Amino acid sequence: MAHQFFFNPFILDNLPTPASGFDVVQDLSEPRLRMYVTSRGVKTFFVRKRVRGRDRRIIIGNYPDMDIETARGAVPEILATASIAPRVHRKKITLKKFLDIYLEKRVRRNSVSRDKLERAIARHLAPLADKNISEISSGDVADTIQNINGPAIAARMQEFLQSVFKYAIDSGYVKTNPVAELPKIVQHRRVRPLHRAGFYRLVQAMEREPDQILRAAFLMLVYGFAPKSQVFSMQWRDLDFNHYTWCDRPLSDMAVVLLQDLPQDGRWVFPGRGRGHLTDPRIAWRRVASDAGIPDVTMDDVNKFLMRQLVWASDREDLRANMNTLLSDLMM
Fold it and tell me: Domains in the chain, ordered, with CATH?
């Protein structure tokens, strides 16, 4: 059962985050209003409703972008709307046009992530794009998925299409979901080789890298708590050493010390060849990983290892303190 209390800004701002997964809390003023609290500190209002024999969870909006009173006021209308059977659309629509509707109504991503999804759609779902969504069969979907190289990407695109057709059913464009009949794609997931002892050896190997820019960039993968694409494209204008921030995200003490020792004579913190920034120093990374005794470790493994260990906090200063504590523990 969800933990119940009167929703107010003070309590919601200071809700503890779970170590993993999510918690659910319920409003006593409007008992139908609930909230997800994820391990990343994201708080989302939602309601539950049994629609045509199935339990549905309808997202209202994220807190604090949506305030409590607005969320409470939206509950009756959302529940009333959910009970109305979708209007059957007689007019045909292609998958390409319906995906535009789906991306607008259902996808909540930042611009970088959304662009990546749109590129994947254009690349992998092109054979289905011009077909009417009501005429796409399980065989059509299966043929398209089979032509995608790599089981991981194929599985993600199949899951994406299943979500798209679920929304198409709710919107009245189709009656059945052709993806539901397909078997799930078996993925042989890679076992990430990084653990605490290996992480310590990896940091020591990074510190032995002779090139100053590469050494700092690799260490920033650790001290910056960010993926390589964001670290390597850092710009000096985005750093504020007075408030220990990088694009409004907190910087650990080790990151501040590291960055302040670098020459600030250009646009990029980690310049690459020509006028661009560092992109993918794979040869240097293989040398560092082999020196640490874990040649299979990738740069992405570093960020994923740290994010599993980091205790998330919505308050910037609390998150910065958690970063410093984690780094101190790992370096011991």
Answer: 3-82 (3.30.160.390), 95-181 (1.10.150.130), 196-331 (1.10.443)
